[in-house]
Design goal:
- By secondary structure, the chain is mostly helical.
- It is built from 8 helices and no strands.
- The longest helix is centred in the C-terminal third of the chain and has 24 residues.
- The chain is globular.
Length: 161
Amino acid sequence: MARKPHLAKAFTDLNKAVMICEGQVTPEFKRLIGYVTSMVSGCRYCQAHTILASERFGSTEERLNSVFDYRNSEHFTDREKAALDFAFAAAEVPNGVTEEHASNLLRFWSDDDIVEIMGVIALFGYLNRWNDSMGSALQHLPSQLGEKYLQDTGWNVGKHT
């Protein structure tokens, strides 16, 4: 992106706007949404970076370790589970969001919160494609966290620098 400053600036502005928390969606939960949508897309770069960001915004090891089994985890509320159901479905290609996902989301979240949730999903859809397609090099710290949390998912640190 650095080769196109106007693109880099637009992305930075979009990232800032998406990550502003003006409702009930916390900074930590936004990063967990980015983590799970990146897992659905298969973007190891974004998975590793969102693990790091989730930790920085207060996520616990329990939440990070159980996020892929969130439906059965005591570490997620019903409202978070509804948002994660929606995030998983929205990140699928083709999109898997059903009326049931949407109505369950509306049971727990305001329209404004849903826009914030969808903003994170869409932002990471962009990032997942950018980083994988451009072969973005993964830095050391995110790579370490990837090894810690993603080892059971076929994480291959050899693909990253």
